[in-house]
Specification:
The chain is of the alpha+beta class. 23% of the residues lie in helices and 41% in strands. α1 packs antiparallel against α2.
Length: 240
């Protein structure tokens, strides 16, 4: 993917100030504005899973105790998956009366709803399905979020930024050369915008094949791809 590259040449003695371009300072001299983008893909080697625990009970204490018990069972099971304390976060308790209203506007109490979430990062993808089974067996009512990640994310982001910078310089050089000009030093650089995405590429034949509970068929999951992308806008002076 590549952002549009614009060529802007201004006379050195021009009376009118040059227009602004996406917040990037422009020189009052011949110059070129170029945008570049870089992207790096990788296989994930860890996954962050969020388990949701809910309980609706006639009394708030009973709802809290039911949720706390489920969270405790999951926390006790996580070390068996190689998940330490640093890889786990648990939300505070959220408990409130569950209220509805009938057609006549009369208040109806459905009981007291307690909620908590536990997020765990698994570093062994072969045990992904077993972790899901374990969370549900502990009492989780939903798996609200699954995020595949790479442990090399900082390095991959840096590679994407370097590619974006090189892409902008290459674009600027090509356009300047086509106009018979020579690319000069960089005048200003807009801040690099970075983004992360994870998806299941149609071109990938990789799979995660994991073992389910004993006596059950194993789960089968597509291997996702994680992508780190960055974009940059730079202004280069033109040599005359």
């Amino acid at each position: 993917m590549r952002l549009a590259t614009t060529l802007a040449l201004y006379a050195l003695l021009s009376a009118a100030p040059p227009p602004a371009h996406a917040g990037t300072p422009l020189p009052d001299a011949p110059h070129i504005v170029a945008s570049g983008q870089g992207e790096v893909e990788a296989k994930p080697d860890q996954v962050r899973v969020t388990f949701q625990f809910n309980s609706l009970q006639p009394a708030p204490l009973a709802a809290k105790q039911r949720v706390d018990a489920g969270v405790a069972r999951l926390l006790a099971a996580l070390p068996g998956f190689g998940i330490g304390d640093a890889d786990v976060t648990a939300s505070d308790l959220d408990a409130a009366e569950d209220v509805d209203y009938d057609d006549d506007g009369r208040r109806i109490s459905r009981g007291y709803l307690a909620r908590r979430e536990v997020t765990a990062t698994l570093h062994d993808l072969d045990r992904f399905n077993a972790l899901l089974d374990g969370g549900l067996a502990a009492g989780a009512v939903a798996i609200s979020q699954v995020e595949f990640e790479s442990s090399q994310a900082p390095e991959l982001r840096q590679q994407a930024k370097a590619k974006a910078v090189e892409d902008a310089r290459r674009e600027a050089s090509e356009v300047a050369r086509s106009f018979g000009a020579t690319l000069g030093p960089v005048y200003s650089v807009d801040s690099v915008n970075a983004r992360f995405s994870a998806g299941y590429g149609a071109q990938s034949l990789d799979r995660i094949i994991v073992t389910g509970s004993r006596g059950q068929a194993p789960g089968r999951y597509l291997q996702p791809r994680v992508s780190y992308a960055a974009s940059v806008t730079a202004v280069f002076e033109l040599e005359r």
